[in-house]
Each structure stands twice: as structure tokens, then as C-alpha cells.
Amino acid sequence: MGPDATVHVIDDDDAARDSLLFLLETEGITATGHPSADEFLAHVDSAAVRGCIVTDVRMPGMTGIELLQALRERGATVPVVVITGHGDIALAVEAMKAGAHDFLEKPYRDDALINAVRTALVETRRGQDGGGGRSTAEQASACLRFTGLSPREREVLDGLVAGSSNKTIARQLGISPRTVEVYRANLMTKTQATSLSHLVRLALAAGVVSAEPPA
Q: What is the pTM of this model?
């Protein structure tokens, strides 16, 4: 990626931040830490970042969602990986709609975090090479993945993208949580999504759900 490709880790938890920095550095990835989103924006030219950002979503002061909104307002295109606590699916989906590259739930696997960061760094390189943005072919490919969904699978998809839990979706649709799990598995298989964040990205790209971020 080059010497200027740096991962900016933003987390108010010193131990969590240091642990993540150590993990990245053991993988040969240049990384630096920031105790808050406000501190990051105050000391780093976000529009000039040539790497990616990994940020916790729940922090004192500016939250991860607010950071995404601030980056968008500044015209920054740096990919952002958002870390959420268990059960924060609604926040994670909100982050995706606000422009996050990916999200991971705590406790996350080290290899999942490293993979998300490496993918984000590749996206940065594509943007530098003039290959940024989603092509019409990519949008068409995303649309094809959703053409075979049944009406009930679409309803479950809508619930997932709304950030609802399996239990909430089950209650809304009058079915059991186990049945929701079956439909959710079918969704992953039919769309070839590898994770919930991937499914959300595909749904946004295909236009089957609204990409408008919250007001």
C-alpha cells in the first residue's frame, strides 16, 4: 500500500485501542491511535488520509455515526470500519447508510478485523488510482442477487436492514425466531452475502432498500 497508508484507530478505551494497534502492527500494517473522534478531526486532515479509519461507534463526545456524517460533510472518501457492541445491529446498519465501509460486532475475531482493514485499504488504493465509485455493472450484479427472493424473504430483509433483531422480526411477521433464522440463512445463500454487513451493502447497492442516512 505504500508508506502513507495508515490505519487510524479511534476508541476512547485505551486498552482496546492499544490492543487493536498491536494487532495491526503485528500484521505489518501501519497504524496510529486517537482517543476520540473529535481529537482525530482536530489533528488529522481527513480529506488527505490515504489509509482507512477503524472507529468504535459508542464514544463520549462525537460518536462513530457523527464522525461518518462529519467526514461526508468534509468531502472525505476514506473508508471507515465501524466496531459495534453486541446487539447494536440498528446502529451498525445506520453506520452503513451513513457511508461506513464495513462493521464488526464485538467480540470480533482478529482475522475478521484484519480482513476488513485490508479490504478497506484496497478500496483506498482503487480510489487513488481513479477506480473509485460503483460501476453500473456492479449495481446490476447486486440487483440480480435479489431477484429470486420470495415475498417473505424480502420482509425479513427489510427487518434486518432496519436493524431489527430476529425476535423483533418474528413478532412483526407473526412467525417464530427459528423461522426467521431459516429465512435469514436463505437470504445469505441466495444473495451470496458473506456477512450481515455484506448483505446490507448489497441491498443498498441494488436499491432494494433506502440508502438515505438518518436526518
A: 0.78
